[in-house]
Amino acid sequence: MPPHSERVNATAELQRQEGPLRSRQAYNCPAMIKELISRTRSYRRFDESRAISREELLDLVDCARLSASAGNRQPLRFIVSCEPDKNEKIFPHLLWAGYLKDWPGPAIGERPTGYIVILGDTTVHPTFDCDHGIAAQSIMLAATEKGLGGCIIASIKRDALRAALNIPPALEILLVLALGRPVETVVIEPVPSSGDIRYWRDAQQHHHVPKRSLDDLIVG
After folding, report:
1. pTM value?
2. Best label site of 93, 102, 158, 217, fewest CB within 10 Å?
3. Are strands 207-211 and 186-190 parallel, antiparallel or unpaired?
4. CATH number at residue 61
């Protein structure tokens, strides 16, 4: 696989030669993007036999690097983990699926095989606007394309994770992305008449996620 810089340059050259209109016509981008977003769900159970390489994680971070940043300040920093020992330092400090009160998180054999910790460098800027949300979504979309999946986790025991990974004080812990090959089915369905938006699991352990309708979201 060529280095990141070569791939970026190759992409730029392809865009220059073909132009954005031809690319949209050839690949039906709007439909492809919507389908990719639909497949990019929050997965919390994984096949631990499918390892994730450091190169794969760096490629995902590179997608975040190329994404938008408020004021182009680019304050985000990243810790990547795919080694079992390092993964074990991260897992205990994450809180899983708040709506599933009787589920403590993925069991051994179904735990993530990779993590990306998103940090904000306060020496660059004291706040990070929505940069980490944009970066997380870019990473998750790219992970889906790789046949992976994951969960964006903001419920973190931050002090404990900082100590476990020896994270400097100037770096604020924003999100942890748990990654692996999913082994669960996620079903999108309409919000019921009760208005309950909590996700739930059925007897087959399929994960159901209620989504509001488009009409419900449009206010003008």
Report:
1. 0.86
2. 102
3. parallel
4. 3.40.109.10
